[in-house]
Amino acid sequence: MANIKSQKKRALTNLKKQNALAGQKTELKTAIKKVLMAVEAKDKAAATEAYNLANKSLDEALVSHIKKKNYVARQKSRLSKLVNGL
User: Fold this and answer.
1) Kindly report the CA angle at 78 between 74 and 83, in degrees rounded to 5?
2) Which of 53, 60, 65, 81 has its Cα between 20 and 30 A from that of 23?
3) How far apart are CA 66 and CA 61, in angstroms?
4) Does the CA dihedral 12-17-20-23 come out positive or negative?
5) pLDDT tens, 12-61?
6) Does domain 5-85 have CATH number 1.20.58.110?
């Protein structure tokens, strides 16, 4: 652990940020899985709704620098192909 007071504070804020980002990452993965499960079940309405939520989560991940733009674009494209294929 650091000896300097400001560095101790910084270590605590880093932990808080890490925990917040971990929650957002989990939420994003869950949103993507919900789309995949709805497509597997061949439920067009549920897949479309889940796809909209996944898009929102992907956009939030991009804005908060959790995921890079190419990852977000690739996931959106992949999921839209699956949903439109129903």
Assistant:
1) 145
2) 81
3) 5
4) negative
5) 999 999 998 999 999 999 999 999 999 999 999 999 999 999 999 999 99
6) yes
